[in-house]
Amino acid sequence: MVSTDRLLAFAAMSLLLIVIPGPSVLFVIGRALAQGRRVALTTVVGNTLGSYVLVVAVALGVGAVVERSVLVFTALKIAGAAYLVYLGVKAVRQRGSLHAALTGREAPPVSGTLRTLAEGFAVGVANPKTIVFYAAVLPQFVDRGQGHVMLQMLVLGLVFNALALVCDSAWGLVAATTRGWFARSPRRLSLVGGIGGLTMIGLGVTVAATGRKD
């Protein structure tokens, strides 16, 4: 099973990525502003389910390949690090987009919990940030010497998604209860986007510099 130190290290790195507003967070915030907290929280649940499907896919497929091939591992790590840096630079350059997402009202009213869950699921399963993280970062925290590689990945993925569930729910609740405060303060949102972008760049550099743990 996953050792405590690896579990804590993975949780810390996961939290760094999760707190940065990405596609899923923007989607939840938009729902919270347009339709309220119930829709926002239902969206978060669907999003989390979609994200965990990615964990299962990595554990069943990519994880086994990565476990046996240093070349594949290195390629995924470099690709993941480059993409994280790209997302960070993009977030810094386009930090005003968070304000646009908060003030937008494009989403139509959603009728029914199942539909809301389905739409959240679709965003979660198609989120490029989490796809890259699961494929390139998650395998680094698996202790292959302990065996049960697939189970370790599923446990680590569960940790990531539990943290994401809490943080995304918090974003939704805050957006739903402080709409006016956010909308009146573009500079606050710009600061959030800028700091988040720099943090993501740092995370990408960390991923690139981290060696394989055999």
Number of DSSP strands? 0
Q: Shape, please? A: globular
C-alpha end-to-end distance = 15 Å
Unreliable spans are: 105-111
Number of helices: 10
Spell out the helices and strands N to C.
Answer: HHHHHHHHHH
Radius of gyration, in angstroms, nearest whole number:
18 Å
How would you describe what is shown here?
- The chain has 214 residues and is mainly α.
- The chain has one domain.
- Helices cover 80% and strands 0% of the residues.
- The protein is built from ten helices and no strands.
- It has helices at residues 4-18, 23-35, 37-68, 70-93, 97-103, 113-125, 128-136, 149-177, 179-183, 186-209.
- The longest helix is centred in the N-terminal third of the chain and has 32 residues, at 37-68.
- It is globular and about 50 Å long.
- The chain starts with a helix and ends in a 5-residue tail after the last helix.
- The model is unreliable at 105-111 (pLDDT under 50).
Spell out the blueprint of helices and strands.
Elements: H1 4-18, H2 23-35, H3 37-68, H4 70-93, H5 97-103, H6 113-125, H7 128-136, H8 149-177, H9 179-183, H10 186-209
Supply database-style keywords:
single chain; mainly alpha; 80% helix; globular
